[in-house]
């Protein structure tokens, strides 16, 4: 399954979904359904989770309950391809055997459910990751500037393990017209789960770190990017809550993103 991106959407990429909800609406939602999303970015050891908005909404950032903070959710955008490869190392292209070049990036997602004020690892949640390569190209899509249908570099999914972890080996993303540097991700229940759940958003990166990474090969072949975080309309609608803190790791970087939910 592939998607063709139209010229009209070439610079806007994807838009945040839903609307900003109030504290009263969130509390009413919790009372009705018992579902609460948690999210936290970290470049170091895991810590306690912080709340994210329920599906279809954008959080206010206001504290809710005991230390929870609402987070934004965003749409999958035109480059999501369902049914990508189940794998941890998403750099290789199965069609050609070519491995995407760039600064190594280790991403870990820890998915939990909240039970009796504690976070319990959620086993078997599906975590999808997709991103552009160092030169701003996505795989398996037709775009106005490239056609990579049939290739699947920098795409993949993993099911969370007994610790609620899903790990990916990737490269630091490049940039493309109209967007700040980012990585897309989706966390959802197994297809036969009842009830099901889904959380879709993006991870952003510190601009100063991106400057350093993009000064090297192969990124500098693309030239200076045309959007920093605060110049990106998507980022301005909540991306500050999704900047992933990274730590040096070997020749590259590593970061952890934590999220949890209540009522599953």
Brief overview:
This protein is mostly beta strands. It has one domain (3-262): Aromatic compound dioxygenase (Protocatechuate 3,4-Dioxygenase, subunit A).
Report on this model:
The protein has a single domain, classed as Protocatechuate 3,4-Dioxygenase, subunit A, CATH 2.60.130. The chain is globular and about 50 Å long. It has two helices and 15 strands. By secondary structure, the protein is mainly beta. Strand 14 and strand 15 form a beta hairpin.
Helix content: under 10%
The CATH topology is: Protocatechuate 3,4-Dioxygenase, subunit A
What class, by secondary structure content? mainly beta
Shape: globular
- What's the number of extended β-strand segments? 15
The level-1 CATH class? Mainly Beta
> Mind telling me the C-alpha Rg?
18 Å
CATH architecture, please?
Answer: Sandwich
Q: Strand count, sense and closure of the main sheet? A: 7 strands, mixed
SSE string: EHEEEEEEEEEEEEHEE
Mean pLDDT: 77
CATH superfamily: Aromatic compound dioxygenase
Quickly count the domains: 1
């Amino acid at each position: 399954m592939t998607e063709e991106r139209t010229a009209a959407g070439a610079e806007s990429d994807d838009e945040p979904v839903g609307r900003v909800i109030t504290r009263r609406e969130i509390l009413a939602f919790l009372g009705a359904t018992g579902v609460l999303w948690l999210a936290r970015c970290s470049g170091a050891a895991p810590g306690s989770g912080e709340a994210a908005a329920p599906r279809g909404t954008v959080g206010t950032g206001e504290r809710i309950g005991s230390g929870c903070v609402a987070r934004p959710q965003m749409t999958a955008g035109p480059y999501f391809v369902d049914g990508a490869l189940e794998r941890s190392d998403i750099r290789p292209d199965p069609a050609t055997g070519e491995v995407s070049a760039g600064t190594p990036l280790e991403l870990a997602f820890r998915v939990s459910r909240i039970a009796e004020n504690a976070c319990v690892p959620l086993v078997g949640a599906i975590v999808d990751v997709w991103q552009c390569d160092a030169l701003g190209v996505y795989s398996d899509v037709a775009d106005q500037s490239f056609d990579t249908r049939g290739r699947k570099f920098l795409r993949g999914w993993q099911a969370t393990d007994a610790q609620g972890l899903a790990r990916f080996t990737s490269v630091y993303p490049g940039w493309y017209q109209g967007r700040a540097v980012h990585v897309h991700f989706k966390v959802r229940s197994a297809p036969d789960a009842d009830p099901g759940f889904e959380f879709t958003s993006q991870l952003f990166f510190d601009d100063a770190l991106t400057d350093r990474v993009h000064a090297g090969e192969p990124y500098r072949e693309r030239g200076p990017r045309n959007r920093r975080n605060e110049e990106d309309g998507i980022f301005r609608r909540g991306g500050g809550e999704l900047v992933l803190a990274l730590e040096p790791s070997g020749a590259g970087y590593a970061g952890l993103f934590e999220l949890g939910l209540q009522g599953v």
